[in-house]
């Protein structure tokens, strides 16, 4: 994984499933307010992100997810922890 930029690109691709194809997705877009995802769609996005990146997003972190950029930052942080965790 090449960090934040790659996480942002993949997160944007995952969001495409939930947003009108013609609508541009910017890093600063709020997932619910700007992109129009309802709570069910947000949970589906979280599930997609967890599956795609092989991470588990704890429920207490959901409140930190507001924008597309927030998701990418969180994923980068979680994948970095996974990569630096001792194996075995």
Structure description:
There is one protein chain. By secondary structure, this protein is an all-alpha fold. The chain has a single domain, classed as ACP-like (Non-ribosomal Peptide Synthetase Peptidyl Carrier Protein, Chain A, Orthogonal Bundle), CATH 1.10.1200.10. It contains three helices and no strands. It has helices at 4-15, 39-53, 68-84. The longest helix is centred in the C-terminal third of the chain and has 17 residues, at 68-84. It is globular and about 45 Å long. The protein starts with a helix and ends with a helix.
Describe the structure concisely.
With 88 residues, this protein is mainly alpha-helical.
Q: Main attributes?
A:
Non-ribosomal Peptide Synthetase Peptidyl Carrier Protein, Chain A; globular; mainly alpha; 88 residues; 3 helices; 50% helix
Tell me the CATH architecture. Answer: Orthogonal Bundle
How many structural domains are formed by the residues? 1
Q: What is the alpha-carbon Rg in Å? A: 13 Å
**CATH structural class:** Mainly Alpha
By DSSP, the count of extended strands is 0
Q: Give unreliable regions as ranges.
A: none
Global structural class: mainly alpha
CATH T-level fold name? Non-ribosomal Peptide Synthetase Peptidyl Carrier Protein, Chain A
Major sheet: size, sense and barrel closure? none
How far is the first residue's CA from the last residue's CA?
A: 21 Å
Mean of all residue-level pLDDT scores:
88
Helices, by number, come to 3
Strand content: under 5%
Helix content: 40-55%
Secondary-structure element order, N to C: HHH
């Amino acid at each position: 994984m090449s960090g934040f930029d790659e996480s942002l690109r993949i997160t944007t691709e995952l969001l495409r499933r939930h947003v009108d194809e013609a609508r541009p997705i910017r890093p600063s877009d709020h997932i619910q307010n700007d992109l129009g995802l309802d709570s069910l769609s947000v949970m589906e996005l979280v599930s997609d992100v967890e599956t795609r990146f092989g991470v588990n997003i704890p429920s207490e972190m959901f409140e930190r997810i507001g924008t597309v950029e927030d998701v990418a930052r969180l994923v980068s942080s979680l994948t970095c922890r996974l990569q630096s965790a001792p194996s075995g």
